[in-house]
Design a protein that fits this description.
5 strands; five-stranded parallel beta sheet
Length: 184
């Protein structure tokens, strides 16, 4: 579990997956939450192998203090949608790429939800963005976290600006290849 912002406070984000083999992908969500010091829990809650526990997890998530759920699944990828069907909390689905179809099956399964049962879906293997989206959801009701999110966005801007500066210098010096020089 990540550092807890307030002593005695429990996790506010649940990170669940269909199998422990999904952890190498889903760990990026945990790392993103760690960057913002957001407390989370991690578990395996398989929609197909443990459906009763999966339903109980979703039904009781809000009363346990969770504010959002990040659910990663591969293949048929029913976990995010099934959790969304039994919880009032926002569910963020992460399509986990597997050996076949490179996660496209998971993506289509997670993104094609019926009306009234929304799942926010990130890119295939996009667990980091899932963690960042959970942080943004929480920041909408937490001024301190909102400030940290704004700082994070400014850091991204600064990094991109610096990359542009280095690229322009490289091209202007002739080291950029291509030699067309249209950017001058």
């Amino acid at each position: 579990m990540s550092p807890v912002a307030e002593p005695g406070a429990g996790p506010v984000v649940g990170i669940v997956m269909g199998s422990d083999s999904d952890w190498p992908v889903m760990e990026a969500a945990a790392q993103a939450l760690d960057e913002f010091e957001i407390a989370y829990e991690v578990d395996v809650v398989s929609a197909h192998r443990m459906p009763h526990e999966m339903i109980a997890y979703g039904e009781h998530a809000a009363e346990r203090g969770l504010k959002a759920i990040i659910a990663g699944a591969g293949g048929a990828a029913h976990l995010p949608g099934m959790l969304a069907s039994v919880t009032p909390l926002p569910v963020i689905g992460v399509p986990v790429p597997l050996k076949y179809l490179d996660g496209m099956d998971s993506l289509l399964s997670i993104v094609q939800m019926p009306a009234g049962v929304p799942v926010a879906t990130v890119s295939v293997g996009g667990a980091r963005n899932a963690g960042l989206l959970a942080a943004r959801i929480l920041a909408s009701h937490d001024e301190e976290l909102l400030g940290r999110m704004r700082e994070f966005q400014q850091e991204l801007n600064d990094q991109a600006t610096e990359k542009g500066k280095r690229l322009r210098a490289k091209v202007e010096s002739g080291a950029g290849g291509g030699g067309f020089g249209f950017g001058k």
